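ok new one. same drill as before - structure tokens go in, u give me an amino acid for every spot. 267 of them this time. try not to just spam alanines like last time pls lmao
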């Protein structure tokens, strides 16, 4: 999954895409580099990010989404949003997936479950707590893996009760969202416990703060090799989707790691 942030304030690539034409070119590049899914977002979810609301999010998102869909009709497009209004408009405009960073924190938008059930789209259910302002203060766990899995299971049960089908769901443990560096490392060391829940796993380690903490690297774009290491580990533990900024080199890492992992890894 290639990241396409249509925002001025995302933590490592905010403001990198200017206008629809550049978005289409960027989409083409990521697809050529090996992206299977493009994840388009109009709201930064980094700690402390300003909440812009559905209307501004749609203004950023829809023109690019519509043009990318027209240019690449076979591409799988995901919309990174926690607003049902935005998700619905994006699905109507040609998106295939909804990637909801608040999916396992009680749904920030109660209308999301019915929308996802209606569209029968792939839905990435991500674990988080709180919002951009409060998440860091909520990173308190007894056993982070057990609690993250339990919260994903509770959210899954609510979605299934609302009519979402099990085959629509992808779990994301939410690296960096209401997690300390130690929590992130613990989740990564015990990914099979999350995979045992029975749902495909998506992981978003790309350029994250915890990689910077381990490597003593404050520059997000300089965390490529730390990201690559996490991705190789994830492939070997059965993770199905990796959400990354640097698609070209990580696609090579994934192919090599998959060859080493065999049939139980990502293929």
């Amino acid at each position: 999954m290639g990241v396409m942030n249509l925002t001025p304030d995302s933590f490592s690539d905010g403001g990198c895409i200017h206008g629809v034409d550049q978005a289409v070119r960027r989409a083409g590049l990521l697809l050529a580099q090996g992206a299977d899914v493009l994840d388009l977002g109009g709201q930064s979810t980094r700690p402390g990010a300003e909440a812009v609301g559905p209307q501004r999010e749609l203004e950023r998102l829809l023109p690019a989404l519509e043009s990318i869909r027209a240019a690449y009709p076979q591409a799988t497009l995901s919309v990174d949003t926690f607003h049902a209004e935005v998700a619905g408009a994006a699905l109507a405009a040609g998106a295939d997936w909804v990637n909801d960073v608040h999916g396992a924190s009680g749904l920030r938008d109660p209308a999301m479950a019915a929308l996802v059930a209606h569209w029968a789209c792939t839905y990435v259910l991500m674990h988080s707590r709180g919002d951009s302002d409060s998440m860091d203060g909520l990173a308190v766990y007894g056993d982070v893996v057990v609690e993250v899995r339990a919260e994903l299971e509770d959210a899954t049960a609510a979605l299934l009760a609302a009519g979402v089908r099990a085959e629509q769901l992808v779990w994301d443990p939410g690296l960096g969202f209401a997690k300390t560096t130690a929590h992130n490392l613990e989740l990564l060391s015990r990914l099979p416990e999350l995979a045992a829940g029975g749902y495909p796993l998506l992981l978003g380690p790309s350029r994250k703060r915890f990689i910077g903490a381990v490597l003593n690297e404050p520059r997000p774009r300089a965390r490529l090799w730390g990201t690559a290491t996490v991705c190789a580990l994830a492939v070997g533990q059965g993770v199905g989707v990796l959400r990354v900024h640097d698609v070209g080199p990580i696609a090579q890492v994934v192919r090599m790691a998959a060859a080493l992992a065999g049939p139980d890894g990502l293929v």
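Residues 204-267 form one domain. and btw The mean pLDDT is 91.
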